[in-house]
């Protein structure tokens, strides 16, 4: 599990070690009874919030009907930056079937400028005051990031990754929230009619 935080290095190393020992990582989050975030619980709706990611004012609750992937990150966080390709791949593979929100706690425009420089196109939600971070038990500039949350179409949490998430982990978590493809039945077998007095061939 790779995380970044605003703590001093010795304290951060100690706390992250304790955190990793007692809380779910990207690997075991789906089977751990706790998400590791005080205000987020599996099978429950996460804290709602309003945002504008470039398409006008919206709310998380208003996105119900398809899966939502929420990523808390910052440009100063190395493992967060290493995840960017994973989220680009998510958009490429799933398109409009999945909503993606990347939430950054830096001054407005910082994340967008960084993404432009890297040639990455992701929807960004600015949270300069840290209100959304705080609602999700991530103190502005102090909690471990990145954190990725997958929300089912019904608005409940299905997966939480604390630390850098891999493509395989994210794809598996997202796919689990999508409707199963319809079962294709084999076409009916043609049967020759049997005439009276004759056996079928």
Protein architecture, described:
This protein has 201 residues and is of the alpha/beta class. The chain has helices at 9-22, 78-94, 110-118, 131-135, 167-175; strands spanning 50-51, 58-59, 68-73, 99-104, 124-126, 147-151, 157-162. The chain has one domain (9-51, 58-175): Glutaredoxin (3-Layer(aba) Sandwich), CATH 3.40.30.10. Helix content is 27%, strand content 15%. Strands 5-4-3-6-7 form a 5-stranded mixed β-sheet, covered by helices on one side. A two-stranded antiparallel ribbon has the order 1-2. A hairpin with a 5-residue loop joins strand 6 (147-151) and strand 7 (157-162). The longest helix has 17 residues, at 78-94. It is elongated and about 90 Å long. The chain starts with 8 loop residues before the first helix and ends in a 26-residue tail after the last helix.
Brief summary of the model shown:
Helix content is 27%, strand content 15%. About 13% of the residues have low confidence.
What number of structural domains do the residues give?
Answer: 1
Q: Strand percentage, roughly?
A: 5-15%
Annotated CATH topology: Glutaredoxin
Q: Can you give the mean pLDDT? A: 83
What's the helix-strand series?
Answer: HEEEHEHEHEEH
Looking at the structure, what is the overall shape? elongated
Strands of the largest sheet, in order across it?
5-4-3-6-7
Q: What characterizes the major β-sheet?
A: 5 strands, mixed
Number of helices: 5
Poorly predicted regions are 6-31
- Care to count the β-strands? 7
Helix content: 25-40%
Query: By CATH's scheme, which homologous superfamily applies?
Result: Glutaredoxin
Terminal Cα span: 66 Å
- The first-level CATH class is given as Alpha Beta
CA radius of gyration? 22 Å
Examine the secondary-structure arrangement and name the CATH architecture: 3-Layer(aba) Sandwich
Give the helix/strand class: alpha/beta
């Amino acid at each position: 599990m790779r995380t970044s935080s605003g703590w001093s290095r010795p304290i951060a190393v100690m706390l992250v070690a304790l955190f990793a020992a007692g809380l779910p990582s990207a690997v075991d989050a789906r089977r751990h009874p706790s998400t590791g975030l005080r205000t987020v619980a599996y099978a429950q709706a996460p804290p709602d919030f309003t945002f504008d990611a470039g398409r006008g004012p919206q709310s998380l609750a208003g996105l119900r009907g398809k899966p939502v992937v929420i990523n808390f990150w910052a440009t100063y966080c190395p493992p967060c930056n290493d995840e960017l390709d994973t989220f680009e791949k998510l958009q490429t593979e799933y398109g409009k079937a999945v909503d993606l929100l990347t939430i950054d706690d830096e001054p407005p425009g910082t994340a967008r400028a960084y993404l432009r420089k890297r040639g990455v196109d992701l929807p960004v939600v600015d949270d300069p005051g840290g209100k959304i971070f705080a609602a999700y038990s991530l103190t502005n500039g102090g909690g471990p990031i990145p954190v990725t949350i997958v929300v089912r179409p019904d608005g409940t949490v299905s997966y939480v990754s604390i630390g850098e998430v891999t493509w395989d982990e994210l794809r598996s978590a997202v796919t689990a929230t999508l409707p199963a493809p319809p079962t294709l039945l084999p076409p009916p077998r043609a049967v020759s009619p049997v005439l009276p007095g004759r056996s079928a061939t």
